[in-house]
Design a protein that fits this description.
Length: about 70
């Protein structure tokens, strides 16, 4: 969990660094395909959706009857 939290702190720092940047014009390389360039705003949105999925997966795991409770 500490690793996840550290990553979130880094992500928030990147968001702060982007303050004032035109998120539609700034381009980044897609992490899924180096040949694909997407807007920085789309990159941030994709990252949020990706993290939301991880949180959903964790909740699903915790809700399982066979998951160890301690």
């Amino acid at each position: 969990m500490a690793g996840f939290r550290g990553y979130q702190v880094q992500y928030i720092d990147r968001l702060r660094q982007a303050n004032g940047v035109d998120l539609a014009k700034a381009k980044v390389v897609s992490p899924a395909n180096r040949l694909l360039h997407i807007s920085l705003g789309s990159g941030f949105a994709l990252q949020v959706a990706h993290e939301r999925r991880h949180l959903w997966q964790a909740r699903q795991l915790l809700a399982r009857a066979d998951f160890p409770k301690s």
